[in-house]
Write a structure and sequence with these properties.
The complex is a heterodimer of chains A (231) and B (300).
Chain A (H helix, E strand, L loop, with lengths): L6 H34 L2 H32 L3 H30 L11 H27 L2 H5 L1 H20 L5 H36 L17
Chain B lengths: L2 H12 L29 E12 L2 E12 L3 E5 L6 H7 L10 E9 L2 E2 L7 H7 E4 L10 H11 L6 H11 L3 H4 L12 H14 L4 E5 L7 H14 L4 E5 L3 H7 L2 E9 L6 E10 H6 L4 H7 L5
Parallel strand pairs in B: 3-8, 3-9, 6-7, 7-8
Antiparallel strand pairs in B: 1-2, 1-4, 4-5, 9-10
Classes of the chains: A mainly alpha (231), B alpha/beta (300).
């Protein structure tokens, strides 16, 4: 067996990937607090979520800069090059998910202190958020272990999120006649929408996993060509 | 439209993507390997079939099968001792000059057997020029360096025009037009190498072979030669041996990766092709793990 070379470069790559994937942990943590703020209508916690987004934005900038440096200094090729390209997508998805948590947090004061809430709709939103947290952990594991099957399986979990989003929409239509009820339902629809987007971001990370492994970019789900995918 | 259906469609719309355009791409877009010979035609200049070269009893390369396409830059890469130089020297019969060298297998040049008994090696080397690692101008004037080949071949036409045309094609004319009588040894290393390329072009070849043409040059001269290679492939087919992986990635259309194979007792070693494919494929998604490790510099 030939001697291994470029050891420091390899170490840099491993560290960069770990730092980028660590961004998913930041999002999971933030989403947990966002969910708590939604459940308890906790405006102060929501403000903390908004302020804390700087951490995720900071992670984005750190990873982005590290990628530029690595490209300039080490000229990665082959699998390393695909990994770098995928990490650039991944960190952008992480940054977007942080923004979605901020979007949700900003809605909390608008929903009112004691809104005429619909327990069933709130329950759906809590389930969605928990499902998205699970998807994010799965996406991280799939990427870290280069497990394309686990990555593809994200679509199944994302379908659950999509169905709950539709369910929220249905409940909002039937919620009642008062303006307060309608305002609350509209706000919660925006929350559900943000969560649904986060589910898509988790699938995006799965798609990047497949790209790193196979060298082919393939959308697991295609909203513009919605026929069932042959797998 | 029923209320139920309208509702279902609204629900669908609610879960569809926002305006960031992320989900507009079609499924399974292949971002790699499209087809071979992407730049030029698929017309074959060389066809190597199970080509082997021995020096005495020792094999240098074995079982080389590949095709070199017209108007392509084809790079040969691999570790020292893998037979890259031996292989490129087969392509214009330079190995004929090594008494112990023996070439087996088939090597077709435009469909003709390059090693056929009726083939004139001098004519071969006119059609298939070669540029070496170290610039090797003759100890003559710049003008005479270029005119040397055309004079020997009794080429028709105005010699001044032939010299100017070759120097222009070699991207050297502007730098030397006022001192054509000066000795070529007075040129810088990079200029000497471009002079050697111009000298090669002067006899109107069809293919140019380059054996590590930039390894003795600084980055600026290297950049000029690389630009020149990209321009020259419009008119010629080019095969280049290089140790510089990024150079292969920058200038070539096709890349062949060779490795050194050893017998069990390690007494004999020879070169073999591991992978030959479009350069983009070799550097983004190679098929063989050994290629991957070599191009990413992970093995020494």
């Amino acid at each position: 067996m030939a001697e291994r070379t470029r050891i420091h470069y390899q170490a840099e790559l491993v560290e960069l990937e770990a730092h980028a994937l660590g961004g998913i942990d930041l999002v999971v943590e933030t989403l947990g607090r966002t969910l708590e703020a939604v459940q308890h209508r906790d405006v102060e916690l929501a403000e903390m979520v908004i302020a804390d987004d700087d951490r995720i934005d900071g992670r984005y900038l750190e990873v982005h800069q590290a990628i530029l440096t690595l490209l300039a200094r080490q000229a990665p090729v082959a699998t390393d090059l695909r990994l770098i390209a995928a990490l650039l997508h991944l960190i952008k998805s992480i940054e977007r998910m942080g923004d979605q948590c901020v979007n949700i947090a900003k809605l909390i004061p608008l929903a009112g202190h004691e809104p005429p809430l619909d327990e069933a709709m709130l329950r759906d939103i809590v389930t969605m958020a928990k499902q998205v947290k699970g998807l994010l952990s799965q996406a991280k594991q799939a990427f870290a272990t280069r497990d394309v099957e686990l990555a593809r399986d994200l679509v199944r979990g994302d379908d659950v999120v999509d169905n709950l989003n539709r369910e929220c929409f249905r409940r909002a239509i039937e919620i009642g006649d008062t303006q307060d009820q309608r305002e609350w339902a509209m706000t919660m629809l925006l929350v559900a929408r943000a969560l649904e987007r986060m589910g898509d971001n988790a699938v995006d990370i799965g798609e990047q996993t497949a790209f790193v492994v196979t060298g082919l970019f393939e959308e697991f789900e295609d909203a513009s060509h919605p026929q069932p995918a042959a797998r | 439209m029923t209320e139920e259906r309208r509702e279902a469609e609204r629900g669908q719309a609610a879960q569809e993507p926002d305006g960031d355009g992320r989900r507009g791409l079609r499924r399974g877009i292949e971002v790699q390997h499209r087809d071979k010979a992407p730049q030029g035609s698929r017309e074959k200049v060389f066809e190597l079939k199970e080509l082997s070269v021995h020096y005495g009893d020792n094999p240098a390369v074995r079982g080389i099968s590949m095709e070199v396409f017209k108007h392509n830059v084809t790079a040969l890469i691999g570790p020292s001792g893998c037979g890259k130089s031996t292989l490129i020297r087969c392509l214009n019969r330079m190995n004929d000059l090594v008494p112990s060298a023996r070439v087996e297998g088939e090597l077709l040049y435009h469909g003709e057997d390059l090693y056929g008994s009726k083939v004139d090696p001098v004519q071969v080397r006119k059609m298939i020029g070669m540029v070496f690692q170290k610039p090797n101008p003759f100890p003559k004037s710049i003008y005479d360096n270029i005119a040397f080949g055309p004079r020997i071949l009794n080429m028709q036409g105005d010699m001044d025009e032939i010299v100017e045309k070759a120097l222009r094609r070699g991207a050297l004319w502007e730098e030397v037009k006022d001192r054509l009588d000066a000795n070529a040894y007075g040129l810088s290393g990079g200029q000497q190498q471009r002079l050697c390329i111009a000298r090669c072009i002067a006899v109107e070849p069809d293919t140019i072979l380059m054996d590590e043409p930039c390894s003795a040059l600084d980055p600026i001269s290297t950049g000029k030669i690389e630009d020149l290679i990209t321009e020259l492939k419009q008119d010629y087919s080019i095969v280049i041996v290089t140790h510089n992986m990024q150079q292969a990635a920058r200038v070539s259309d096709m890349t062949a990766f060779l490795i050194v194979e050893l017998t069990a007792d390690e007494k004999n070693r020879w070169g073999e092709i591991v992978e030959y494919d479009e350069t983009e494929k070799i550097f983004t998604n190679p098929s063989d793990r050994r290629t991957e490790d070599y191009v990413s510099g992970k093995v020494g």
